[in-house]
């Protein structure tokens, strides 16, 4: 018999198409689905029921993180004052030392931090595969199962090492053939396309300056044959724009379009330096964006045209990006930073608090092709929810709960529910031991940095 959870006496922001909200409302969850959502007290429910008192709380859909590099959780705080290219060349020799255990520990730490900040679904973009590293994709998939998040790992790749004029060291790049074999195997072993899937694979060559055009083209063919999505970094920095102009004679967006990397099954990370033509192409083709405002500011990469993208109808979600360029990796900080940068760029009306919450929820779901399943609180959708405490001194008295969530400091979670399972309760993870995770992360970080000498 299905477990039934009733959450009541809370404010509810459903983030449905009509923006339905309740000042005092309830939800009933049955198994892994949302059964009922509405105003006032919950209806009478039969059977074994777990009740969560939502007084003083706001219930939202779980947040969706559309871009990450979880392995970086154990390389935070390095190259803190460098450009992206300097930062990459400092970190690559350290990243070259990762193995299965390092990735398992890093992914557990990163996913635990995401869960504690309201995230119920996360992607990961893993593109560093040292030759003796072992099954790194399998290691992070195991970590996601332990923490209990819905997971979309992107099988990344690089085939342009230093000796071929690329940025990454040769020991972390693979040949095109090896990448295609590994990518096909990752899909066959792990990809689950079912409605309530906890695990979907995407293919994700790293970036224009670390992969060949053949790898981008062939990955797109394989992804489309296999029914999985495509993800990569595009237009993150001016350096990348200059590289594409010199090497390919076009903008990063034009380059991606030439290689078949536009469409409703594609999402780009960052997409900062775009002209109007690029935005028009993305809107017409349904190409999505993982907007990462905190990372962009940390790296000083620029301010994305997020409001212009939203206005044009481009699917936009939010992402924390890798922890080495966003040490907090707090998912709830992303809607606030998205709003701040949008307003700094486009003025006070550039983005509302509700639009920024929508980007972090249904927007991300749309980018991942899962807006029929997650991203809003509606009957029949999956039970992925965040219950935020707004009754502590930090938030009590802020007039509007959605404003309190987006513009206030990060509130504690009363509960985080993923696929009907309680992952966080009263601010603490229920699935993994936080103290053990912290100790393992510190040990793995020290070992990895020592290994690089
Ligand atoms: Zn990234």
Describe what you observe in this structure.
The protein is α/β, with parallel strands linked by helices and 453 residues long. It folds into two domains: 4-61 and 376-428, Urease, subunit C, domain 1 (Roll); 63-367, TIM Barrel (Alpha-Beta Barrel), CATH 3.20.20. Helix content is 37%, strand content 21%. α2 runs parallel beside α3, α11 crosses α12 (353-367) and α12 crosses α13 (401-407). It is globular and about 65 Å long. Zinc ion (ZN) binds at residues 67, 69, 125, 233, 269, 321-322.
Write the SSE topology.
Blueprint: E1 4-13, E2 21-30, E3 33-39, E4 49-53, E5 57-61, E6 63-65, H1 84-95, H2 100-116, E7 119-126, H3 136-147, E8 150-157, H4 176-190, E9 202-205, H5 213-226, E10 229-234, H6 238-248, H7 252-258, E11 266-270, H8 276-285, E12 288-291, H9 293-299, H10 306-312, E13 316-318, H11 333-346, H12 353-367, E14 385-389, H13 401-407, E15 413-418, E16 421-425, E17 428-429, H14 434-452
Parallel strand pairs: 1-4, 1-5, 6-7, 7-8, 8-9, 9-10, 10-11, 11-12, 12-13
Antiparallel strand pairs: 1-2, 2-3, 5-14, 14-15, 15-16, 16-17
Helix pairs in contact: 2-3, 2-14, 4-5, 11-12, 12-13
Bound molecules: zinc ion.
Would you give the CATH topology of the largest domain?
Answer: TIM Barrel
Structural class: alpha/beta
Considering the protein shown, what is the CATH homologous superfamily of the largest domain? Answer: Metal-dependent hydrolases
Main beta sheet: 9 strands, mixed
Spans where pLDDT lies below 50 across 5 or more residues: none
Tell me how many strands there are: 17
Q: Could you report the average pLDDT, rounded to the nearest whole number?
A: 96
Our count of domains comes out at 2
| Helical residue percent band | 25-40%
Bound chemical compounds: zinc ion
Number of helices: 14
Globally, the shape reads globular
User: How far apart are the termini?
Assistant: 55 Å
CATH architecture of the largest domain: Alpha-Beta Barrel
Q: Beta fraction of the residues? A: 15-25%
By CATH reckoning, the class of the largest domain would read Alpha Beta
| Radius of gyration, CA atoms, in whole angstroms | 21 Å
């Amino acid at each position: 018999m299905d477990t039934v959870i009733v959450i009541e006496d809370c404010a509810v922001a459903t983030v449905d198409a009509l923006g339905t909200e309740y000042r005092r409302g309830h939800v009933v969850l049955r198994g892994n689905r949302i059964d009922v959502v509405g105003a006032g007290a919950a209806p009478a429910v039969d059977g074994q029921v777990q009740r969560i008192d939502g007084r003083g709380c706001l219930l939202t859909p779980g947040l969706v993180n559309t871009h990450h590099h979880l392995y970086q959780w154990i390389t935070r705080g390095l190259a803190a004052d460098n450009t992206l290219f300097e930062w990459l060349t400092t970190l690559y020799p350290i990243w070259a030392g990762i193995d299965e255990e390092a990735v398992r520990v890093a992914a557990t730490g990163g996913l635990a931090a995401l869960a504690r900040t309201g995230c119920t679904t996360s992607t990961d973009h893993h593109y560093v595969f040292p030759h003796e590293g072992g099954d790194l994709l399998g290691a992070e998939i195991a970590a996601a199962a332990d923490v209990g998040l819905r997971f979309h790992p992107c099988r990344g790749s690089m085939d342009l090492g230093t000796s071929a004029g690329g940025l990454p060291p040769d020991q972390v790049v693979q040949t095109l053939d090896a990448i295609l074999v590994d990518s096909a195997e990752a899909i066959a072993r792990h990809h689950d396309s079912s409605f309530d899937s906890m695990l979907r694979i995407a293919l994700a060559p790293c970036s224009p300056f670390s992969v060949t055009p053949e790898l981008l083209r062939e990955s797109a063919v394989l992804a489309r044959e296999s029914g999985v999505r495509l993800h990569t970094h595009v237009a993150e920095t001016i350096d990348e724009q200059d590289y594409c102009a010199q090497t390919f004679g076009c903008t990063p967006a034009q380059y991606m379009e030439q290689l078949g990397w536009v469409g409703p099954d594609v999402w780009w990370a960052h997409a900062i330096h775009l002209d109007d033509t690029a935005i028009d192409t993305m809107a017409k083709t349904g190409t999505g964006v993982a907007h990462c405002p905190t990372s962009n500011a940390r790296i000083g990469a620029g301010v994305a045209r997020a409001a212009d993208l939203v206005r044009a109808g481009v699917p936009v979600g939010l992402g924390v990006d890798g922890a080495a360029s966003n040490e907090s990796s707090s998912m709830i900080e992303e809607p606030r930073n998205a709003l701040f940068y949008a307003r700094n760029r486009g003025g006070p009306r550039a983005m509302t608090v509700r639009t920024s919450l929508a980007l972090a929820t249904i927007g991300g779901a749309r980018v991942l092709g899962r807006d029929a399943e997650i991203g809003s609180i509606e009957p029949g959708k999956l039970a992925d929810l965040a219950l935020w405490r707004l009754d502590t001194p930090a938030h009590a008295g802020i007039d509007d709960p959605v404003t309190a969530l987006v513009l206030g400091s990060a509130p504690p979670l009363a509960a985080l529910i993923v696929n009907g399972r309680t992952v966080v309760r009263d601010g603490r993870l229920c699935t993994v031991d936080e103290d053990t995770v912290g100790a393992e992360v510190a040990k793995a970080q020290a070992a990895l940095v020592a290994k690089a000498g």
